[in-house]
Design a protein that fits this description.
alpha/beta
Length: about 270
Amino acid sequence: MKKLSLLISGIILFSSCAESAKKKGTDNESVTMNTAKNTTMKNILFVVTSHDELGDTGEKTGLWIEEFAAPYYLLLEKGAKITIASPKGGQPPIDPKSELPDFQTKATKRFYQDRNTQDVLANTVKLSAVNQADFDAVFYPGGHGPLWDLAEDKNSIAIIEAFYTNNKPVSAVCHAPAVFKNTKNNDGTPLVQGKKVTGFTNSEEDAVQLTSIVPFLVEDMLQEAGGIYSKGDDWAPYAVEDGLLITGQNPASSELVAEMLFEKLAK
């Protein structure tokens, strides 16, 4: 009888442990599924330049590759789904200076060894085909190219205004805040008016000896549009957030902007 009691007790204990383990596994699976759901829901649009002429210098410009690569990998690893668009679609021009050895980073080295991401960048969709309803946020990498095309592109202007109107974050780094040159609020005032913003500084532009080449200076434009412009030390990481707007000062700020964007989406 005593042996029978011990046997029954053992069966009950085993069943209890098995049920507990099963429940624990279900709970962990639920957490994993919820986490995956939260991250994969973040659909982020990257908009890059299609412009490759550096004024009338005869030199080439375009996308500054670090400002694409660092945010792209950071956001991708956090589970975001990223779509890349450009005014012309297809392969965007990459600023040849950004490919020089002095400007290589961990992210750019990874990009040049990553055939899949190179193929993704080579096949950007046309900006005119993009619908903001399909995305949770938009990010603009810099390079000098946006000063010529994205600052004036009607589709880019419309996309930014649509994101902002629909309460979705808009972010840009380095020269990319140039995209706010012609964007407006619903009442017709400049989108950046009264907002804290930053972007490539006049002194940084002077340091690369392009002040007289670019169509306008990002720092001056943001201030003229009524933005509350601030900056850090030249070439040091610096970014500011004001409501739905997140802007970074220079290439070193690109990953910081991406981090701030993801934190904004995670709230």
